[in-house]
Each structure stands twice: as structure tokens, then as C-alpha cells.
Amino acid sequence: MTYIPKPRVRHPDLPTNALGLTRRDYEGSMSTLCAGCGHDSITAAIIEAAWELDLEPHRVAKVSGIGCSSKTPTYFIGQAHGFNAVHGRMPAIATGAQAAKPDLDYIGVSGDGDSLAIGLGQLCHVMRRNVDMLYVLENNGVYGLTKGQFSASADVGSRAKSGEVNRQEPIDPVLLGLALGATFVARSFSGDKGQLVPILKAGLRHRGFALVDVISPCVAFNDHADSTKSYLHTREHLEEAVAADLILPMARISTSYEPGTVRSVTLHDGSTVHFRKVPDDFDPGDRDRVYAFVRERQQAGEIPTGLLHLNADAQDHNGVLETVETPLVDLPFHELCPGEAAMEELMKEFR
User: Fold this and answer.
1) How far apart are CA 214 and CA 261, in angstroms?
2) Mean pLDDT of successive 10-residue segments in the chain (351 residues)?
3) CB-based contacts of 62: which residues, under 8 Å, 6+ apart?
4) What is the pTM of this model?
5) Is the dihedral of CA 195, 201, 207, 212 positive or negative?
6) What does the alpha-carbon distance between residue 351 and residue 340 come to, in Å, rounded to a whole number?
7) Domain locations along the chain
8) Does the N terminus or the C terminus of the chain have fewer Cβ atoms within 10 A?
9) Phi, psi (5° rounding) for residue 108?
């Protein structure tokens, strides 16, 4: 991964939050993602949410897996703790870290490939355990790093740039979260910062697992087998000096619309998606009705967005386990390992 630091020069009149920090203090390194990538818009929204919530950068823990989406923690809150796990295994790392150090703010960033394919089992268990963290799923329907294969969230009938048509049913993370009893479920669009920032703020403040599925269009999947400019063709016919792609700049896609209304958004590849914001009288506490609403709008060809489900009364993972208030990393060794006599007394309960 390439790290390009941002210049530290800043305007002296930039607004500050309650900690005396500017938005620039919540940035990370320069992005190496494609120009126009929706993931960078999500990064900007996370920066805005963290700044508005006055999060202390050194008390934030960022975790990710593998993929374009999993590069994005590099681009926000540079002074936070960070861990890049192997493909699909970020939830296990987050669960262990949160159990040992629950007083940090945990932000997990993943993609539809990382979460809904190789990491599907891990995602299911981190939801059912209600681990206290914000989980941002950057959803673009393809494997961007490997040039546009369909991911598990690709809709039936969607067409790749290669011309292939997807015929497999998708896994919908929102319906999955509702089915497994996730206590905070939301969906948004990377181009709708006005909606996304408040959702991220709510997720960061939620006590438990907050799933935010963000539709984030990929702008650059183009390395298909029939292209003479593909990696495979170039390696077979030329003496490679450096591996590179030509990525043409594209503008970010932005939109805004009122609650209860539908907005059609045309993506860079010419396809159109239809977003519906939930109405003002929508009840996110009724999980069964939310599930029915999401399915109903999907069958109408729409993508419902907004805070879809919230269960504020559920206990988080530490509450269910009845762990002590003191973080495990701060407990002295003799309390973590009280000795053979204490273990023998404990084992009597299970005989």
C-alpha cells in the first residue's frame, strides 16, 4: 500500500470543534483510489462525522480487511490506532480488540466482497454478538481491485463492462442484518453527504453494532480478458517495466432529495439506481415491518435509504458477557489469572 502524506499547511481561520481541532486534524494520507471513487466521499463523510462528534483521534481504533474499501482507513484520522486484517477476518479482530479495550471508538470499514463472500460468516457473528462498533460496508457490487468481477451483492440482470450478465441472486446486507437481529441498520449513498454524515454520527454513538451499508459506485473496472490493454495481455507480449493502468478522471456523483421521495441517479457506466428515503413517520424500532418495507421497495426497483432499524435497548457484547468495567488490558496479571485454586472452584459449577 502506498502512503502519501498530506501537506500540513492549513488556513489559520479554519473552524475548530470543542477539542480545538479542525477537519484537517481528522484526515489521513492522500488517497490512491481512482478519481471519482465513491469510497473517497465516504471517507470525507467519516471525517466530518468524527469532527462534529469531537472524537479524540488517539481514542479511535480503525479496522479493515482486504479490498479497495479496506484501504480507506488510511485516509482518515491519521493519529488513530489501526489494524488491517486478512481478507474477511476484520470482525474477529474487532471483537477481540473491543473486548480488551472497550473504551475506544471502533470504526470498521469493509466492502461487499470482504463482508458478503469470504467474510460472510464473520459478519454474521459480529452482528449477533452486538459488538460495540460502527461497521461501514462500502458496497459497489464488484471486486474493484481485481477489475470488476461480480460480487455477492450484484443484482440479478446487472451487466459487467465485459458484457457478462449476472444471474445469481444477491446477498443484501440490510436484510441480513435485520434477519440476524442487528441493533442498528442503515443504508445510504456515497454521493448524499447530507444523509450519510448524520447516519455515521448516530452509528458512532450507538451502544452496540451499527451496520451502515453505503452504495458506493466503482468507476474503473476495465481489465477484462478480451482487452489488449489488460494485465494478462501486456505480460504475455511486452517486457514489463512497471505495472500501471490508465484511469480517466471522473466527477463524484452527488444528489439530495426529501424524505419519502425517490431519486434516480445515473452512474458513470450509464446504469441507473433508484433511491428512496424513508418517510418522516417511519418506525425503525419495528424490525418485522422494516424487513417488509425493504423487500417491498426492492421489488419496486428502489433502494431504501436512511436509518432503517434501531434497537436501543439491546445489550452489547460486553454487557451480555457481564465483563468487568475495567478494560482487560488494564487488569493486573493476578486478577486475569487468579491461579489453580480459583480455576478449580470455577470448574465445580460445570460438574
Assistant:
1) 18
2) 67 88 94 87 95 95 93 94 94 94 96 93 95 94 81 81 83 94 89 88 93 85 34 33 40 69 65 69 86 87 81 87 85 85 87 81
3) 73, 76, 77, 80, 81, 82, 83, 107, 108, 109
4) 0.77
5) positive
6) 17
7) 23-321
8) C
9) -105, 135
